[in-house]
TrEMBL record, chains A, B:
Boundaries of every Peptidase M20 dimerisation domain copy: 182-338
Name of the protein this chain belongs to: M20/M25/M40 family metallo-hydrolase
Domain of life per record: Bacteria
Keywords attached to this entry: Hydrolase, Metal-binding, Protease
One of the protein's GO biological processes: proteolysis
């Protein structure tokens, strides 16, 4: 009998910080643990080497007529800093009340365990289950999944032949309101350096004669939004697509207590693009955000300089048919065209990811050729969540970006069923990360029901 | 016989970094050296205690009818970082060709030595010189002279009774063109912190709903200048005063090869306030400069956040009758009034200094009651520089700020004769600081001629 909570406790105990090379040994131990756990279920395990942290693939093969589900997860976790804010040991799972605490509890070891336990229980109950399963558990998600796209391309033939991807690495608003994520924003990021004088200048001896790079940077950055908070870059909105009525209806069901939302992030007013509510803006509209800005003297006291340069980090979130390369160039061109005389600018492009959108079955805009297995998975998800959690799930876009989901779609043609099993109170990427054991148990039931339904048993 | 170069070598050898408490012993040794050097000239030395680094005062008293000159200098120096860029040891004076290298060579040990050596030679040649002299050599100039104003106030009676202050702590354009500084800009600095959400937010999950503090900061900073580079703060220019024709004529004589100036600071275009040349803008007009700007993630790679806050350091340079308190409030009020909803701002005021302007004798706007001793000192300065350096000095305002000069004027009523004895190539506040020995020797001659003329011998 597979004990999901015991397995999760053990899983959390392995120290798998992918960003920090000091955890190389822990990464290996974690990988071995995952491989053994999946092997013990009777799956064939393959460790796929990558430049950093190998990917664990585990397959239940079978008759080619059987449906084939790919279950995605990641065994790596975020760093634990600031360690002094943890109330329990981050790599020693601790159960307090109905919650399990530890780094990775919610991202992604716990939610991932729901699907592993579901498969374990199903195969025990029904050894002949007519379902092919491929687990794909990577170890580089927290460092941007650099090895996943190469793997997708290398295993394109095998993976394309599957029916859909099942994963839980997204957020639900609460235990009472599970969300199935049907859309993710794309992303393109860049860093801009603006260079003025050849070195910091004395602001007394030169101030008033030379264009201050911080002033120019502020002017350029300020020019990138209009007062109604639209992005002021030619062509930026060209490939934004219309949002269907059913999507707006789902979002309305989510409710929108904007005062509570503003309070939760600690501001006394919100600032969405004109014509959209804040929740619509996050999900339906692209953004241009400044993630970091710096230049000149930033220490204590004062230093009377005209600084030599200024830098800004910018991330654009993309929706609809917006393409990272196109938008990146639009923004870079806009910035470069606004650099005043006396300064030079360099733009360095960073990560890129296209937006993702899947339309569940039975909607006005469901694609005509949507696969029956995928449609079935979605219908089963809705029914299972409704029964197990007591309320119909909402099919919502999310403002975040998981570029691999769009990559999977682009390379293999597979859509993803993303069931949110972590909650706002789970402290992802923060001290005292935890997961509700009740959500874990319900997640196992939901996953089992989906897999059984897909298998047709 | 006083050997100025030997004394300067020894002076540079004493490690007097006032900003760094690790140099406490070096500061004491330097002070002892200065005290002994001045005592050896027959002056009465007083060490005035201050909270940080005591001030050396040394007096040659005499008949109250004798003119009385205060000679100002500072024995402290800038830190030596980055030490790896020094080609000689910063605290071991090294003579290469016609230059003496070492920290403080130009700022201020060398130029100050010109006046000390002049007094030494004069007293040797003319032991009965009818001149009262007060050296005032402080040890906190590089940390903002916090003890000088209290000293001025404490010794107001004694100092007010002097005729003028003589010092060399300003720049000349070249050895061939000595400048006498007749005006300094005032200063007021402040730091503004803009706070948005209570912590950094995930730019996917929240981007588009919350006002990004970096965006708001850029918009506020961008609003502080108009496209013609005027400061866009109500009332900012109210107390700027007219510049006299003779001043413009002097500046014209300086010449204005703007291409050469732009090249020297490493830009391909300059950006003065509309209606002024860059050199006029630096000297005659106030500025609002951003000295430092920061917020969000500034490390390697990307971090997809809406940052919680943003900060900027601002310095305003003031001219004419502009008052630091008034201008500081104008700027702070303008900034606070431009903070959008959803953010809060805090403004912290820093250093303050009023502008300074002295009009030499024989100008259309020379004050009617200007003292004959000061007028004589100015005339002697012009004649001596013309003879010794081979060209008439220019009487110019400078864009920098030496708040103590204005404080001296305000508290004691004394004007200052500021003869520029360091040059652009001297690397002040930078590695490989040096001073031309030729300028030092000529400086001694000029100082002697001024002092003799003031003494009437």
């Amino acid at each position: 009998m597979f004990d999901a909570i015991e397995k999760l406790k053990e899983y959390i105990g392995y120290q798998s910080v992918s960003a920090d090379s000091a955890y190389k040994e822990g990464m290996g131990q974690t990988r071995d643990f995952v491989a053994k756990m999946l092997g013990d279920l009777g799956l064939s395990v393959e460790i796929v080497n990558t430049p950093k942290h190998p990917i664990v693939m585990a397959r239940r093969t079978g008759d080619p007529s059987w449906p084939h589900v790919v279950i995605y997860g990641h065994y790596d976790v975020q760093p634990v800093d600031p360690i002094e804010l943890w109330e329990t040991k981050p790599f020693e799972a601790t159960i307090k009340g109905d919650r399990i605490y530890g780094r990775g509890a919610a991202d992604n070891k716990g939610p991932q365990m729901a699907h592993i336990a579901a498969v374990a229980e199903l195969l025990e109950e029904c050894p002949d289950l007519p379902l092919r399963i491929t687990f794909l558990i990577e170890g580089e998600e927290e460092v941007g999944s650099p090895s996943l796209l190469p793997l997708l391309e290398e295993r394109k033939e095998e993976l394309s032949e599957a029916d859909f991807v099942l994963l839980s690495d997204t957020l639900s608003p609460s235990e009472d309101q599970i969300a199935v994520t049907v859309g993710l924003r794309g992303i393109v990021d860049m860093e801009v350096e603006l260079v003025g004088p050849k070195s910091d200048l004395h602001s007394g001896l030169h101030g008033g004669a030379v264009y201050n790079p911080l002033q120019a940077m502020a002017e350029i950055c300020a020019s990138l939004h209009t007062p109604d908070n639209r992005v002021n870059v030619p062509g930026f909105y060209d490939d934004v697509t219309e949002v269907e009525e059913w999507e707006r209806d789902e979002l309305k069901e989510l409710g929108a207590d904007m005062d509570a939302y503003a309070a939760s992030v600690g501001v006394d007013a919100l600032h969405p693009i004109a014509g959209y509510t804040p929740f619509e803006a996050i999900r339906y509209m692209p953004t241009l955000e400044f993630n970091g800005l710096w230049g000149g003297y930033t220490g204590e006291g004062s230093k009377t300089i005209v600084p030599a340069k200024a830098s800004v980090k910018i991330t654009c979130r993309l929706v609809g048919n917006m393409k990272p390369d196109v938008v990146g160039k639009q923004v870079a061109d806009a910035i470069l065209s606004r650099v005043p005389k006396g300064l030079k600018a360099k733009v360095k492009m960073g990560h890129k990811g296209v937006p993702y959108l899947v339309v569940p079955p039975d909607r006005p805009n469901t694609p005509a050729g949507q696969s029956e297995v995928l449609a079935n998975a979605y219908r089963a998800t809705e029914a299972a969540v409704t029964d197990v959690f007591g309320k119909k799930p909402l099919f919502l876009r999310e403002g975040g970006s998981i570029p691999i989901i769009a990559d999977v779609k682009r390379v293999t043609g597979l859509d993803s069923v993303m069931i949110g099993l972590f909650l706002p109170e789970d402290n992802l990427h923060a001290p005292n990360e935890s997961m509700s054991l009740e959500v874990l148990k319900k997640g196992i039931q939901v996953s089992k029901r989906i897999l059984k339904s897909v298998a047709g048993v």
